[in-house]
């Protein structure tokens, strides 16, 4: 079985100015400087990318954006393109977060276009999927994950797919303090790995990293990471404080 390198990303959502972001990195970097067992990524708001890029120079921290437009440039007020993110120092980009899907009407088709455009620019997409509470309660989790997986990642070549990371983020667990149990999360992760096996074959399924997101905290991360198909975490609230995000990264 392939060993997948653990991956921990902090999604800061709409929190932190450039100054606050730089201060975070100054405090956080020493806490994870020896954490070479995993990839460590911060996704600040666009306006703090530059501050984080400067502050993280010479550290083992990498940069992600929280969104991207699929065009290279154009009359798209308020949007930012993949080439702009690369120039700003991003290696990764979060695509299709449930807040984008639910608050801003982002469709699977838009997710697909963003994934393709990001790959073309050399960015590594972190593609988010996940069901709402009512979808889970009406037994639609599998159907929703299949639709989001197939809609967002349809027709990628093996070389494209090999650069994807998936984040399973059940909407009912985001910002609610209700972490999915390790078993519930594992079930969804195994399903997503199964979909990958079907679409891309066994070796790709074995190498794909699938992150869990939704109220991950220092005291819940170990149970999640003990599951065979959970390869890391996409962390919101608990990534806003250097101590708690470092405790998640260094949970072993
Ligand atoms: P919380 O960790 O605050 O629940 O947020 C999860 C999330 O949405 C990460 O992208």
| Bound molecule types | 1,3-dihydroxyacetonephosphate
Radius of gyration: 17 Å
How much helix, percentage-wise, in residues? 40-55%
CATH topology label: TIM Barrel
Tell me the CATH architecture: Alpha-Beta Barrel
| Mean of residue pLDDT values | 97
- Name the CATH superfamily assignment: Aldolase class I
In terms of structural class, how would the helical and strand content be classed? Answer: alpha/beta
Count the E strands.
8
CATH class annotation: Alpha Beta
Gross morphology is globular
Q: Reading side by side through the largest sheet, how are the strands ordered?
A: 1-2-3-4-5-6-7-8
Summarize the helix and strand pattern as letters: EHEHEHEHHEHHHEHHEHEH
Number of helical regions: 12
Uncertain stretches of 5 or more adjacent residues: none
State the assembly state of the protein chains: single chain
Question: What percentage of amino acids are in beta strands?
Answer: 15-25%
What is the end-to-end distance? 21 Å
Please give a structural write-up:
- This protein is of the alpha/beta class and about 250 residues long.
- The chain has a single domain (about 5-250), classed as Aldolase class I (TIM Barrel, Alpha-Beta Barrel).
- Helix content is about 45%, strand content about 15%.
- It has twelve helices and eight strands.
- An eight-stranded parallel beta barrel has the order 1-2-3-4-5-6-7-8, surrounded by five helices.
- Helix 1 links the parallel strand 1 (about 5-10) and strand 2 (about 40-45).
- Helix 1 (about 20-30) packs parallel to helix 2.
- The protein is globular.
- Bound molecules: 1,3-dihydroxyacetonephosphate.
- 1,3-dihydroxyacetonephosphate binds near residues 214, 235, 236 and 237.
């Amino acid at each position: 079985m392939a060993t997948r390198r653990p991956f921990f990303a902090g999604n800061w959502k709409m929190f932190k100015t450039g100054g606050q972001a730089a201060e975070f990195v100054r405090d956080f970097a020493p806490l994870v400087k020896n954490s070479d067992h995993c990839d460590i990524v911060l996704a600040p708001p666009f306006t703090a990318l530059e501050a984080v890029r400067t502050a993280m120079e010479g550290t083992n921290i990498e940069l992600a954006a929280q969104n991207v437009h699929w065009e290279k440039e154009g009359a798209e007020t308020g949007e930012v393109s993949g080439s702009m993110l690369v120039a700003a120092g991003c290696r990764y980009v979060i695509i299709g977060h449930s807040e984008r899907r639910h608050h801003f009407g982002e469709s699977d088709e838009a997710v697909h276009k963003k994934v393709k455009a990001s790959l073309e620019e050399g960015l590594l997409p972190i593609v988010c999927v996940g069901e709402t509470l009512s979808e889970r309660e009406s037994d639609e989790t599998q159907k929703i994950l299949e639709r989001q997986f197939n809609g967002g990642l349809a027709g990628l070549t093996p070389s494209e797919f090999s650069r994807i990371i998936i984040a399973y983020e059940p909407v009912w667990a985001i910002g609610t303090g209700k972490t999915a149990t390790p078993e519930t999360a594992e079930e969804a992760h195994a399903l997503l790995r199964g979909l990958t096996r079907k679409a891309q074959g066994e070796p790709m399924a074995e190498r794909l990293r699938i992150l869990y997101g939704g109220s991950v905290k220092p005291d819940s991360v170990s149970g999640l990471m003990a599951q065979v198909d959970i390869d890391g975490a996409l962390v919101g609230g608990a990534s806003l404080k250097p101590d708690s995000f470092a405790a998640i990264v260094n949970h072993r």
